[in-house]
Backbone:
């Protein structure tokens, strides 16, 4: 049930927050979040999910604030859900993409673009960029808190948060679960954040892929490495498939996509290798018959649509916290 008025909603929201705040200026990496921060974010996301989203209403608690989405790399799910999240909360959302910014054809640097955006007094900047570390660079230049919406091959923290939230919804916990990550870990920022949050929350993390898709010291991420997918899936509670990142030339690391699909695509024959109640996840976009078969996508144990849905309340929580309850920057 949606609280009857905006004032009532704020009272209930503050009850959920319970005096907690994030001890950082920007949301750039899972490394900066401790378990208490993650719990705060999940409590807020649950509250937004059962109130605003399930009641299909707007709650303009960010009215008067401006949210700048600066996406210098393609995106469907992440950009749309950040935009809708801001709009559900009443923020003025402005989208800038690489193709329509001066960075693209006129040669303006990323730092100068950031200074320009800062001069426009955004209250929060959501950044996606093809270069690893871009969000750190921008965060140092601008007054507004920056949310990293994916930087190169580095991290994608809001995706990992919504993934962990989805696992808890489906499985009731993360601690002690065996999660097998399948695919292009080398080029994947989703992996970068996912492995950090899963380790932090006590999962046993396995990875499996063709050898060329592993970083040279992959074990340093705190994962168990398997070259054989059948062994990797044995007793798994969660299978998390990653896309082969062809835009980062990942297809050059494997003989052919067809061979990759033969050896690593999650299909109905591979499902019984894992636990009976295993769930299957993927951050999207899914390449059908390469990452997951259509039968798996349509399977009741596939949580891909839940992941997309949870992107909305998760990003509402992050935007609200970033604007109101992070540390202010000192320049
Ligand atoms: C991912 C991304 O862009 O990092 N997608 C997403 O944000 N949901 C993963 C991908 O592109 O494979």
Residues:
């Amino acid at each position: 049930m949606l609280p009857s008025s905006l004032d009532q909603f704020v009272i209930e929201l503050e009850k959920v927050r319970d005096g907690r705040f994030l001890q950082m200026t920007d949301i750039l990496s899972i490394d900066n979040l401790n378990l208490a921060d993650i719990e705060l974010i999940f409590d807020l996301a649950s509250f937004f999910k059962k109130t605003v989203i399930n009641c299909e209403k707007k709650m303009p608690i960010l009215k008067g604030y401006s949210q700048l989405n600066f996406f210098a790399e393609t995106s469907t799910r992440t950009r749309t859900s950040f935009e809708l999240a801001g709009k559900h909360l009443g923020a003025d959302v402005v989208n800038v993409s690489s193709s329509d910014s001066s960075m693209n054809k006129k040669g303006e640097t990323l730092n100068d673009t950031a200074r320009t955006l800062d001069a426009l007094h955004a209250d929060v900047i959501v950044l996606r960029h093809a270069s690893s570390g871009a969000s750190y660079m921008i965060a140092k230049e601008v007054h507004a808190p920056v949310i990293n919406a994916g930087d190169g091959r580095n991290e994608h923290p809001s995706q990992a948060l919504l993934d962990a939230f989805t696992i808890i919804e489906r499985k009731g916990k993360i601690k002690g679960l065996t999660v097998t990550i399948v695919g292009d870990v080398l080029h994947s920022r989703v992996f970068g954040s996912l492995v950090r949050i899963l380790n932090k929350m006590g999962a046993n993390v396995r990875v499996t892929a063709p050898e060329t898709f592993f970083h040279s010291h992959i074990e340093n991420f705190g994962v168990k490495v398997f070259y054989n997918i059948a062994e990797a899936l044995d007793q798994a509670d969660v299978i998390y498939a990653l896309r082969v990142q062809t835009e980062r030339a990942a297809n050059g690391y494997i003989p052919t996509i067809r061979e990759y699909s033969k050896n690593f695509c999650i299909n109905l024959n591979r499902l019984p290798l894992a636990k009976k109640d295993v769930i299957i996840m993927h951050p999207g976009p899914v390449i059908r018959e390469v990452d997951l078969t259509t039968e798996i996508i349509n399977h009741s144990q596939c949580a891909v649509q839940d992941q997309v849905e949870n992107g909305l309340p998760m990003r509402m929580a992050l935007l609200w916290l970033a604007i109101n309850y992070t540390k202010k920057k000192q320049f």
The first strand starts at residue 66 and ends at 71. The mean pLDDT is 93. The two ends are 43 Å apart (CA to CA).
